[in-house]
Input
Amino acid sequence: MWDIIRSVVRARETFAYDPAMTEDEARATWIDGRTTVFDDGRVRGTAKMSANRPGPGAHIATASFMVAAGARGRGVGTALVQDALAWARAAGFAGMQFNAVAASNTVAVRLYERLGFEVLGTVPRAFEHPALGRVGLHLMYKEF
Output
């Protein structure tokens, strides 16, 4: 998973993680809650999921996804999101919330919308994209 995480984080196009993140920091950040991988003989993508917040917010799930560059457009992201949704429903969550989806990540936004998520709001210019400058971050939600 480290190769995928390192590549995605250093590209700075979709995640607001420090591009200097080390493998140990990635492990501490990514492997909490439930972590899955899409593996067809080679790891093509990874997801992490958990309760979005503790206490009174613990009934809403959250998840994050990363797909290897060479596997994009092949259904890996869809499979990971569908797995996360199935896990969240089976675990009794009332919905799933994505806290910070870069508005410029149109492929992910379209995927999430196709699977029933909606953009509830956008924080303008909250994400520093390396090529596009400051773009919005969407809050997205799907109720079960």
